[in-house]
């Protein structure tokens, strides 16, 4: 039996970056991917002749690791359309225009948002995204929910709901009473500051020509037949010398294994000997959030004609955020919106037609009647895919970060673990996947 230097399980960005760095270093290696395509949570589809990015798509200026990889792969980016006024739909359902970052709310609410933002930014500056549990107040912050923390800070409900939106529905995609204040601070620290999460022009700055899925496609092209598709790894037997990876009837031997699959999916694999119980426990506490990404195409970007950018926020709306998502060079107009956590549960129970009608009704609340009749309507489906299981990524429940700390990044024997779900900088983002993939390859090469 051939013994490879390394086998990488999972051809998302983490696995493919790790594989490409190992290949560059001359390692004899293989990538095993369960799906019949590479890219994991990055996937582009063509509907009615137009390109839609079903998973990750945006690149922000702080994402140095991703930007360097885009340069290396020769992939071009273009800015998201943002000319004109944004919309804020308030609790009464009234859509109000604004420019800049300050929401058109009453003066007391505006002052409360400013104060909360400052408090969050001050705390975030003290957090090391790679070691949030080392903050002097980590344990206290990890034992209270983000909702509780917000209530401690501020009496203004609309201010709290707006600040909650940026980390709950918009990022971790879980209700704010299900994760800790420390997990919220990690989310902000992973993007450089809370202010960065609020600033759509920063966090959703650019897109990749042809889609962000061009990254894994290009890495896989370079790796060639070292990437094998439809290889669902069901078992790993390991010892001091290496590991045997089992796919169907085939057994593949390697000195090292990089398991680049999201933490909740590790338990689909049978390990011999079993993983230490603490590791299994830790992964039980890191779960996927849920967001449905909805995209619509219209004959023209009609909102631009009335001076609107296509950006809208509505903490009380079914679609809590919406953006112009027209690919560069298109004459048609695309909008992308997001339905998160309990709202996603709720519309998930509707028929496809009723769900579409509910989403379009919400878009009408932002852009008027013209929004009701798109030519194309596309929904993401990650929650239905066993090899992902939610969106965008995973996070710990209350107390998990300080209880399990760096456990999810710890190797066991010859096996390394990691995806963007365990990154510090770039947490839950493709930038994090690039960082983790690079780090995993370095660990294999250094003989760790
Ligand atoms: C709707 C949505 C929108 C997003 N928006 C953005 C965005 O705008 N910008 C951004 O930076 N990020 C965004 N993200 C997050 C980003 O897509 C992910 O952080 C990133 O793609 C994760 O890459 P990964 O390689 O770490 O994990 P994954 O992409 O999950 O890759 C894991 C791979 O392992 C495979 N696998 C699992 N189990 C096995 C097994 N047993 N055997 C073999 N293979 C296996 C899976 O099929 C998959 O291909 C978004 C994600 C979603 C879902």
Task: Outline the structure in words.
With about 450 residues, the chain is of the alpha/beta class. The protein folds into three domains: about 5-40 and about 215-275 and about 410-445, FAD/NAD(P)-binding domain (3-Layer(bba) Sandwich), CATH 3.50.50.60; about 45-60 and about 75-80 and about 205-210 and about 290-385, Polyamine Oxidase, Chain A, domain 2; about 105-200, Guanine Nucleotide Dissociation Inhibitor, domain 1 (Orthogonal Bundle), CATH 1.10.405.10. The protein has 16 helices and 22 strands. It has helices at about 15-25, 65-75, 105-125, 140, 145-155, 155-170, 180-190, 195-200, 200-205, 215-225, 275-285, 300-305, 340-350, 350-365, 400-405, 430-445, and strands at about 5-10, 30, 45, 50-55, 60, 75-80, 85-90, 95-100, 205-210, 225-230, 235-240, 245, 250-260, 270, 285-290, 290-300, 310-315, 320-325, 335-340, 375-380, 395, 415. The strands form five sheets. Strands 1, 2, 10, 11, 12, 13, 14 and 22 form an eight-stranded mixed sheet that branches. The protein has a seven-stranded mixed sheet with strand order 8-7-17-18-19-16-20. Strands 5-9-6 form a three-stranded antiparallel sheet, covered by helices on one side. Helix 1 (about 15-25) packs parallel to helix 16 (about 430-445). The longest helix has 19 residues, at about 105-125. It is globular. The two termini are about 25 Å apart. The model has no long low-confidence stretch (mean pLDDT about 95). The structure holds flavin-adenine dinucleotide.
């Amino acid at each position: 039996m051939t013994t490879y230097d390394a086998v990488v399980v999972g051809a998302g960005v983490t696995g493919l970056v790790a594989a490409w760095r190992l290949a560059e270093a001359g390692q004899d290696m293989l990538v095993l991917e369960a799906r019949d395509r590479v890219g994991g949570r990055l996937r582009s589809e063509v509907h009615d002749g137009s390109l839609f990015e079903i998973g990750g798509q945006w690149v922000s200026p702080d994402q140095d690791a991703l930007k360097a990889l885009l340069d290396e792969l020769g992939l071009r980016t273009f800015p998201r359309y943002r000319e004109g006024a944004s919309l804020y739909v308030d609790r009464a359902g009234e859509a109000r225009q604004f420019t800049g970052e300050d929401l058109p709310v009453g003066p007391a609410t505006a002052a409360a948002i400013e104060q909360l933002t400052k408090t969050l930014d001050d705390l975030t500056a003290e957090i090391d995204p790679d070691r949030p549990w080392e903050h002097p107040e980590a344990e206290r912050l990890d034992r209270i929910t983000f909702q509780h923390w917000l209530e401690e800070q501020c009496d203004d409900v609309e201010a709290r709901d707006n600040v909650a939106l940026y980390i709950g529905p918009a990022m971790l995609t879980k209700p704010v009473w299900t994760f800790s204040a420390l997990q919220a601070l990690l989310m902000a620290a992973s993007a450089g500051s809370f202010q960065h999460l609020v600033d759509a022009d920063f966090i959703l700055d650019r897109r990749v020509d042809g889609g962000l899925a061009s990254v894994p496609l290009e890495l896989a092209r370079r790796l060639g037949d070292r990437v094998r598709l439809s290889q669902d790894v069901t078992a790993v037997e390991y010892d001091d010398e290496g590991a045997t990876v089992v796919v169907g009837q085939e057994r593949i031997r390697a000195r090292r294994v990089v398991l680049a699959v999201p933490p909740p999916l590790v338990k689909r694999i049978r390990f011999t000997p079993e993983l230490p119980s603490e590791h299994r426990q830790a992964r039980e506490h890191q779960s996927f959030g849920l967001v449905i990404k909805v995209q619509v195409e219209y004959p023209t970007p009609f909102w631009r004609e009335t001076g609107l950018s296509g950006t809208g926020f509505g903490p009380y709306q079914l679609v809590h955020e919406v953006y112009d998502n027209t690919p560069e060079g298109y004459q048609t107009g695309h909008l992308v919106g997001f339905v998160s956590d309990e709202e996603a549960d709720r519309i998930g129970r509707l028929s496809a037609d009723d769900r579409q009608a509910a989403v379009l009704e919400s878009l009408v609340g932002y852009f008027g009647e013209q929004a009701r009749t798109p030519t194309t309507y596309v929904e993401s489906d990650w929650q239905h895919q066993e090899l992902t299981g939610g969106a965008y990524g995973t996070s710990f429940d209350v107390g998990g970060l300080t209880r399990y700390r760096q456990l999810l990044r710890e190797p066991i024997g010859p096996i390394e673990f990691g995806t963007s779900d365990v990154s510090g900088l770039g947490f839950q983002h493709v930038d994090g996947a690039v960082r983790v993939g690079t780090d995993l390859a370095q660990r294999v090469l250094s003989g760790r």
